[in-house]
Structures are given as structure tokens and as C-alpha cells.
Design a protein that fits this description.
Strand content: 25-35%
Order of helices and strands: EHEEHHEHEEEEEEEEH
Structural class: alpha/beta
Helix content: 10-25%
Largest sheet: 7 strands, mixed
Radius of gyration: 17 Å
Length: 236
């Protein structure tokens, strides 16, 4: 069962113009999530389309493909500038990788040049950390910052879907950890194998930047987008 928007803000995005980087990946699902929240949703493919945005979402997909296409469309430089200037940005899955300052295992092109990121989040991520497509899994997460959705029984967990998702191996000063996947109980694991060692960080926030390893846009979980909208408005 998915979670609807909080009753006090049925259309929290009203009056906002939020872009979704529409070069590759599941950008259509994010566009629909933004529209459902009441905001104007804009697909972004050219630098001039960044003008007048209140926020931007970098979707899941192939981080290497998005990186290459962003450079080919001359978007990479303007995106880095807008992020540095304070544009609110939410990255899911590949978007988390592209917002990270560092990648533990960057892909390289045929010339041996490592993939690039837009940066902004003082974190180190590991690509495909939970495994390949066949190791995709679902789990419920305790997620900080969703108090606006509380009911008499508290804040419901976020049902998260991980599809070749990254995890965060390092967080810098000023980066808040919002959610973690705990080591699995082998008898009740929702993923293919128990996770060794400690919990894995899968959601972070730093100032105007938000990132998750998972895909709320594919499950109907609207509260992560609502949190991002509240960040844009300065309410979270």
C-alpha cells in the first residue's frame, strides 16, 4: 500500500516549476510525480531550460550515459554552476551518483577516462553496490524528515525498491544520513543474500541537496518528493 500526500498539503507543489533531467532513465515517472504534487513539471535537455526552475530532479538510469549525454548537450557545466549556486536538487539512484563528489568505483571510457559527476554532495558512493539487476530487492526503511506525514500511529516506513542501486560509503561534515539498510537476517532477507557488516547508507541530505539510492517514483511513495518540495519552499 502506498502513502498519499499529507492531508494538510494535498497539492504541496502548487506554484513551483520543477525540472527533471530528461536525457536518459526514468524521468517520465518523476515528471508524473511532480505533476501529482501540483507543481509544473519540465523535462530538461538544454542549458537554457534551466532558467526559472525552483528545483531539479536527476532520475535513475545509467549514470555513465547521463554523464556523457549531459556533456554532449553542454549541460554538465551549467548544472555544476546551478548546484553550486544553491539550486535545490534531488537525485534518485543514478542521480545520487551524479550528485556525489566522489565515486569509489567509477566507470571508465575506452580511453580510460573516469566518469564525471555534477557534484555538490560531500559523499563517496559505490555504484551497483547491492548487486546487478537480478539482485534487485524491496524493503521498508525508517526515513528521517517525514514528520509532516505522521498519523496517530507515527510515521510510516518508506517502502523502497533498489534496482542496481548505489550506497554511500562516506559522508562529509554537514551531510545528514536519512535512511539506512540494515544487515539482513538471512531467514527474512528481501534481497538475494545477507549484507555483510554494518548498515548501508541509502538516503542523505546536505542543505539544498537530497539523494536516495532507491526509486520512490516507481512505487507511488510520494513523501520523498514532498520532502524535496518542502526543502525548495524552505519548510524542511
Amino acid at each position: 500500500m502506498t502513502n498519499s500526500l499529507s492531508a494538510a498539503s494535498a497539492r504541496p507543489g502548487s506554484g513551483l516549476r520543477i525540472g527533471v533531467l530528461a536525457l536518459q532513465g526514468d524521468f517520465r515517472e518523476h515528471l508524473r510525480a511532480i505533476e501529482a504534487a501540483g507543481a509544473e513539471a519540465v523535462g530538461i535537455r538544454r542549458p537554457k531550460e534551466l532558467d526559472g526552475l525552483d528545483g531539479l530532479i536527476i532520475p535513475g538510469g545509467e549514470s555513465t550515459a547521463i554523464d556523457k549525454l549531459a556533456r554532449a548537450f553542454e549541460l554538465a557545466g551549467p548544472l555544476r554552476e546551478r548546484i553550486a549556486e544553491g539550486l535545490p536538487v534531488y537525485g534518485s539512484c543514478a542521480g545520487m551518483i551524479l550528485l556525489a563528489n566522489d565515486i569509489a568505483d567509477p566507470a571508465t571510457d575506452l580511453s580510460g577516462v573516469p566518469q564525471q559527476t555534477f557534484g555538490g554532495l560531500d559523499i563517496t558512493v559505490r555504484r551497483n553496490a547491492f548487486g546487478r539487476q537480478r539482485e534487485s530487492f524491496e524493503t521498508d526503511l525508517d526515513f528521517k524528515g517525514l514528520d509532516f506525514s505522521a498519523t496517530a500511529s507515527g510515521v510510516a516506513p518508506v517502502h523502497a525498491v533498489f534496482i542496481r542501486g548505489p550506497w554511500v560509503e562516506r559522508v562529509g561534515p554537514g551531510v545528514e544520513v536519512l535512511a539506512q539498510v540494515e544487515p539482513a537476517d538471512p531467514e527474512h532477507a528481501s534481497h538475494a543474500a545477507p549484507l555483510p557488516g554494518t548498515a548501508r547508507i541509502v538516503a542523505v541530505r546536505s542543505g539544498h541537496l537530497l539523494a536516495t539510492s532507491f526509486h520512490p517514483e516507481v512505487t507511488g511513495e510520494k513523501r520523498v518528493h514532498e520532502l524535496f518540495i518542502r526543502m525548495i519552499r524552505g519548510e524542511a
